[in-house]
Amino acid sequence: RKADMVIVGGDVNSTLACSLVASKLRIPIAHVEAGLRSFDRTMPEEINRVVTDLLSELLFTTCDDANANLEREGIPNEKVFFVGNPMIDTLMAYLDRALETDIHKRIGVAEGNYALLTLHRPSNVDKQEVLSRLFDALEWVQSQMKLLFPAHPRTSERIRDFGLSPRLCAMPNVHVLPPLRYMEFLSLMARAKLVLTDSGGIQEETTILGVPCVTLRWNTERPVTIREGTNVLAGNDPSRIITAVRNILDGSKKPSARPKLWDGKAAKRIVEVLKGYRGAGSKGREKGSGS
What we know:
Layout: E1 6-9, H1 13-24, E2 29-34, H2 44-55, E3 58-61, H3 64-72, E4 80-82, H4 86-99, H5 103-107, E5 114-117, H6 122-125, H7 128-144, E6 146-150, H8 153-161, H9 165-169, E7 174-177, H10 182-191, E8 194-197, H11 200-209, E9 213-215, H12 224-227, E10 231-233, H13 238-249, H14 266-275
Parallel strand pairs: 1-2, 2-3, 3-4, 5-6, 5-8, 6-7, 8-9, 9-10
Helix pairs in contact: 1-2, 4-10, 7-13
C-alpha cells in the first residue's frame, strides 16, 4: 500500500530502517523526537537520529535543545515543529492506573525506600572492566537500601559471560527481576527513592515524576533533564555514582521543573501539523516553532 507519509519515532534501528525504505520509495517521513543529540557517534542511536533527521520532511521536537541542534545541522526551519514530548503524554495518561498496581508490595519493598536500576547500553555492559566498576558502585548502593534490578536479557547474558553472577548473588539487598511490563515499571519508578539508569527515556520520565535520577553515562541526548529536571550525570565511575546517590540520601534533592510543553498534549500538536501538511516542500501550519 502506498502510504502518504511514514511516521517514525525515537532512535532505534527500526526507526532508521523505516526511514531508509520510505526515502527510497519517495514517501515523506515525519520523525517524532527529532533533533536529540548526545554528540557521541559511538552510540548506535546517535547515528540513527542524525540520518533519520536528514531524511525527514517533518521533524517534531521535544525541547529547545533539539531545535538548536537541527538549526546547527542546516535543517530548514520550516520543517521543524516544537510539539513537546509524546512519551510524557503516555506517562500522564497511564500513571493513575499504574499506581493501582501493588508490585512493590509483592516484591516486599516499601514505597520511597528503594532504588530502581536499569542497565543495558553496550558501553556499560559489553566490557567486563566497565561492568565490574558499575558493580563496585552497586555494592555500596545496596548496602544503603533495597535495589530493584529488572535485568535486560543482554545484561544478564554479559553478567554470566564475565563470571559476575556470584558477585551479584552476594549482594543481599539486590532483587533481580525479569523485564517488566510498562505499567509495572512505571509503578516502581514513581514510588522509588531514586533511579539509576543508562536509558534516555527514563531520564525524561523521572523528571516528570520528580524522582531523583542518576544517569550511568558520560553524556545525554536529553540535557533538559539535567538543566530543568531531576537528572544527574555520573558516568560509570563508582566514586561519582556513590557521591550522587549519597547526596540524594542526605536530602539534597535537586530542584526540578516541568520542561516546556511536556504537558500531555504533544500528540494533539503533532496531529494538527499533520492535518496541515500539503506534501513535500510544504511549510506545514507554522514555521519552525510548530503549532
